[in-house]
Amino acid sequence: MTAPTDADVVPVTVNGVEVEANAGELLIDACERNGVYIPRFCHHPRMKPVGMCRMCLVEVDAGRGASLQPSCMLPCTPGMIVDTESDLTKKAQDGVLEFLLINHPLDCPVCDKGGECPLQDQTMAYGPGESRFVEEKRHYEKPIPISDTVYLDRERCILCDRCTRFASEVAGDPLIHFQDRGSQTQVNTFPDEPFASYFSGNTVQICPVGALTAKPYRFKARPWDLEEVDSTFPNPMGDRVNVQSSRDRVLRIQGVDSDATNWGWLTDRDRFSFEALSHDQRLVTPLVRGDSLGNATDDGDELVATSWAVAVERAASAITASLEAGGAESIGVIGGANLTTEAQYVWAKLAKGVIGTDNVDAQLGDGLPAQVVTALPRNTISDAMAPGSAVVLLVDDPKEQFGTLFLRLRHAAVEGDITIVELSPIASGLGSLVTVGAHARPGDVGAVARAIVDGRTDVEVGGVEPAELQAAAAALAARAVTVIVGRPSVAEQAGPIIDAIAAFTELESVSFLPLLRRGNISGALDMGLTPGMLPGRTTLAEGGEWYRAAWGTVPADSGLDTAGMLEAAVDGSLTTLVLLGADPLADFPDADLASRGLAACRTVIAVDIFASSSVANADVVLPAAGFAEGAGTHTNLEGRLSPLMQKVNPPGTARADWLIAAELAWALRADLGIESPESAWAEIERLAPSHAGATVEQVRAAHDGLVIPRPDDAGADRPAMVSFSAPVPTEIVPVDGYALRLVADRRLYDQGTIVQHCASMAHQSDLARISMHPLDAAALGVRDGDLVRVTSARASIELPARPDRCVPRGRAVIPLNRAGADVRALIDLATVVTDVRVATL
Amino acid sequence: MGVNSYLAHAPGYVDNEGPKIVTGRFVHEDSHTLARSLATGGYDGLKRALEQSPTSIHDIVRDATLLGRGGAGFPAGVKWGFCPPGVWPRYLVVNGDESEPGTYKDRLLMQRDPHQLIEGSLIACYALGLSQCFLYVRGEMALAQERIAIALNEAYDAGLVGTNILGTDLSVDIVLHWGAGAYIVGEETALIESLEGNRGMPRLKPPFFPAAIGLYGKPTIVNNVETLANLPWIINNGAAAYKAFGSETSPGTRMFAVSGHVKRPGVYEVEHGTTTFRELLYGDNYCQGIRAGHELKMFIPGGGSAPWFFPEQLDLPLEARPVGAAGSMLGSGAIVVMDETTDAVKACLRVVRFFARESCGKCTPCREGTSWEETILQRIHDGLGRPGDIDMLLDIADNISPGPYPTAADEANGLDAVPFPPKQTTICPLGPSSVAPITSAIRRFRHEFEAKITARELIPVEATGP
Amino acid sequence: MSRLSPENVTIAEEIIARYPRPKSALIPLLHLAQEQDGHVADDAMTHVAELVGVTPAEVLGTCSFYEMFKRHEVGTYVVNVCTNISCQLLGGEELLHHAETVLGVKAGGTTDDGLFTIEDVECIAACTEAPCLQVNYRYRYHVTNDDFDQLVDDLRAGRATDVPEHGVLATVRQRIAGDRLAGVVPPEVATEAPVWLPDPAEERAR
Fold first, then answer.
1. Angle B10-C137-B359 (CA atoms, 0-180°, nearest 5)?
2. Section B415-444 average pLDDT
3. What CATH architecture is C77-157?
4. Given a contact as 3+ CB pairs under 8 Å, which chains touch B?
């Protein structure tokens, strides 16, 4: 928010005191900013005013005599005289409160909202001691489930329109609605059509009474038993959250309104992910190979519990043995994108500065090179969506993967003067809100971007018609453009995406928001958990000397990425592999290579919170602290640093990731010199070129976090940060007229570890299906639900089909990581794209 | 001039003596057909309008001081001027959702002379540059819908509606739209919501009146059927001729539906502003007095929403300002006459029940308050009232429509009038409308309420137990 | 029952095409569904939702606001007896009571033979003709008890030829021939003054 200039200041008299309101500011907000709280139920600062609860009536004289006005709908005008305490105001507010209460049940003692209920608080503060309403109250069946996670108690509902406005206005899922009329009005779904919204949990949070309750929290705690702390949810948006616990268990996560990021909203997947934290399958003790009697032996068939001392020593000896036998290059680290930024730094220091290997990769073949990502000029989310700007989408469907960013985009598209050009291979959940859908054929997006940037829009390019190319060019012309870029499909190599980035860098006013998978991927790339890079967005070449001076050693040459490490493991040149919260068996696009690579390693050391399939085959397992079990700093897609706070203790003997690295270093006879997340941060601030000036105090103090690099010359004496250079363009793969080009994308609910360990979400992961345009389906004789065989150059899988108008002609979409067929079998990482043939069975 | 009797083909309408501006064709049984319309000067007003500039048509309407006939009585020419310049498109929405208890003039105008309404609508479109017209007819009025559909089909075929009307560059479609049963949709912002396919819940105004931000967020003129029906005559005869009828501030004629305990209930076209309630209720040309053997107890002067009047207000003229000053309104031109046999509590309950049933449910005070009022009144009426009920009822009313309401003591001191228009804690006047019958009835007939409460028969409680 | 028939889908599409935004056609389309089935079935609401591009919950939200839409089966003849003030003064409640007695159901109920539903309704705009009622929205004025009995007999015998089955309102639909159509005026597109305004600048100056 910019500070108001004088022209924007509106003098308003509130209860006899002249205060300054901002031009256009609603009276209720201006009063609150100036310390006068007006009670309200329907007003919500992130939604349009409706003025229906009438609780915020105050006496206002705007020049034509005093009258009662709803302060939530009244913009301040100069000279307005407001009395929030007059007899007329009080009488009106008391009257509204009484009206709200006459049909409200007296079940506060068994209501989840009791203790944090605005209606209860108002009544306790101002309400009459007894009721004048002697009649029977309204009755409804209570409560009814309106979705997998949300219950609705219509008796408690005060019809404030918050949940229904959220559903239609914010989420774009108008699946709950007012029904019937007058005193019979109720909120409900259409019969047998649940409130299946990825954002349904927000309605529970904003319900001003206990009408909407969340299944994962129902009857778990009373508000006065909860301890809470503001923190950051470790997703790529860095959503601000309030973490609430009782008896050392996280019981609830609520969104916190941060103007810069999530505006208070959360996706259900993140909101209810705390269920996994206290799952009884959490890793609680170190594990090593052992025999069936529980004795630790080097080549045992089972994983047996052991002490940290034994496990760390086992890990250190494996690393030492590999170092001696094959040098640092025989050791690799995969993962780390879900760690805190501090832990990422400490692990980078351990790998590169102690062990001396550059075989480090936080991405599993589904990202973009750090040399590209960290080199691009970035924008903030708010500036990217400022009126008059343009956004290019070249990512996974934000609705599926980056929910709160989707809500910001949706808001900007509906309310703001922005244009959105979608280059992703298929339409996103924004649907008709995008200005231009120029959905590039996989493999061709570089050419499409080039055509748009160069204005060569007279012929079809990459499956995009001239009209769309022209519309896209027009939508970007004379606007500040932000390209939100990631990997829309792992069936398409990164090359074409980088070509598109290269084209867009030539626009006059352009910046980027790299939107990649995994919570703290931005931190991982910034901290050098990637081959060829060092902390602070600098390269081995540029920063090697600087870090060698600080750390003692740094690898001379660029190391291997995840694919390279797995291949090196297969050919025997890599013998020890550390998995930092990584599950290549489930998560690497080439499952076969992952399987052979892990099997070939002499030692696999896994640091994780759950025993995923990869962890189950490891030799040493070190249990890590999860979300809210440790402190640190999160880095979001903007490069925004915000604090992650500890709320509960890790289960069993699980430890923070940074501490595990420090312990391992110690066992390798090295002292990392880091005793706490704060000391790690101090070192980052002291060394990393991009983090100069971002002190721990500043990060902690800023409500909306702190964006790096800081706009000053604090890092002038440090190594240069990486700059972008366009690679040789990837060649276009000719279209096979008999095949469909594969898109392998992701959905919100999948077979992922967290989702599958949350009771309320696990079952929401649907079966894998192949979607294609109805005309393509018709040409192949495929009807909805038919089982089809999908064949690539590599393999065949069988799965049900679904005609879908949103899929462009000539393409087929299969989601990753869903129950049923595994699309990864079809993908050959060595080819730019994957073409598949579909046949009915 | 009329024959001063009912017309068999137009039940309810009394063809009385006096000027006929909007009901002139009603004497013809086929007044709804295009043939009859054209034979009796139909569409001449439109033709005449098309010969003049749009702005001069607006000037004529403004000069005529044509008051809106929907209930609020705001001058149409002034309302038309509220369209922000340079913002296009603009729409016309014809409000034919007549549902105010006691009111039915628009239904007759739609059934008996749909072409007059079409012509009036086109004149408005021409004058203001309204590019599309939606004619919203109350859902329950099947015959009106049918007559308008036929009339529109005829008019389209005759080149009178649609593209290049009468060979000019005026091109406007009139779309027949019909409701589905909701009184509140007669309120203009609720009407717009309904026309957008939504629940008919009123929008707050200010900040935005429909003339500035209306249908689809664009400038929209919402005019009542009777208002638009006046336009052909005004354009044909001029503002001066129009102002020759009625009073200076309320010129022309107005349709009044007088129902209840009068000898000749009916819908009358009456000179506006000059005629008094007494003339209308007792005059030979009109209702001819209270039914035989009875006398006037009270009357509702402007539809169910209006506070009640009593014999002492009979000499007020049918003009907005004096009626407002006396604490009520002319509203929608509906007068309900009640003689001394009327149970004030029961009448009050029935009107309040109407508002409770028709509340849209948006604003808390109306949603909860109107049904609570109904419950208490029902209790009193059933002989189950409690001693504090009357004051509680007034207090609940005060929370929907803040008073002060004169107490008996105030009245003794000459403080008689209820403030009008009412204050409200709600968005629209529906909730406060439920207060009108309550304050009216209790002020005047408190003793009837008290009698019902004190006459309450207690159910004997017999001792039970071991 | 049921989604809209192919014939009704054609009518629905004609209706939708008259509005700048499809959702405006919601109420007319729900009437069309009620005309088809006598009431508005859930499947019909889902179908209407598809036709106008909203969710079924939004259709239900609108549908349930308006009392003419019946979401369950009602009688072939819905008899609406007005008891509002003007009719109450002249026997509307007594007429309703008589109707309930004759048909053997309370207001809101439907006779076992499925022929009649009685409703106690608000003002239907025939106040001078009190007491009045509507049968499937066709008026009957000054209704005495005998008149009511006669009406029931007539309806049972099929003699009340002006009364269609429940759901039918106007028996004639508006039609606009293609060459007479001025064209819908979408708010986003028609942002210029209409052509018949000779000088928008003159108007702006006012």
1. 110
2. 84
3. 3-Layer(aba) Sandwich (3.40)
4. A, C
